[in-house]
Amino acid sequence: MRHVLSALVMNQPGVLAHISGMLASRAYNIDSLAVGPTENEKFSRMTFVVKGDDHVLDQVRKQLEKIVTVVRVVDYIQEEHVERDLMLIKVETKTRLERSELKELVDIFRGSIVDVSAGHVMIEMSGQERKIEAFIEAVRPFGILEMARTGRIALSRSNSMSSAIEVGDPTHSSDNVDQAV
Fold first, then answer.
1. Are residues 88 and 63 in the same domain?
2. What is the pTM of this model?
3. What is the C-alpha separation between 162 and 181, in angstroms, rounded?
């Protein structure tokens, strides 16, 4: 089973290395990882995609919650959320006809052409993983020259991970919250 986990962490040097090292040392495979700042400069959000059964997920959560710089961990499988991937892909175009056909595909998939040169087009695509995968398969016959993808990002449709932290959520059991605020 695939789980999308989000960890609100203190924005400090070495946090990513510490967390990824802990997961690697316990042989947990991370399928996807994205890290970035949040609306509060004190925190960063790390979003992981981990495959495994409930036991594996439980172990990953427990290990993450033991780390002092981790403030809160959420498993999005248990709540409504929006998740997206981002991709830049460079596709070969030898003729005007190919370029025109490629532009139609980009429009159908609601992507954007962000760079054009004599022999290729660079496309930006965002969406759910299956959309990204479908687009890759659709443009494969043109010739994929290069591709870069982000890790998955996600947000809950209803709850905010950091708003409760900022006001001092008394229901959170972790001591990490007190250290973060």
1. no
2. 0.77
3. 11
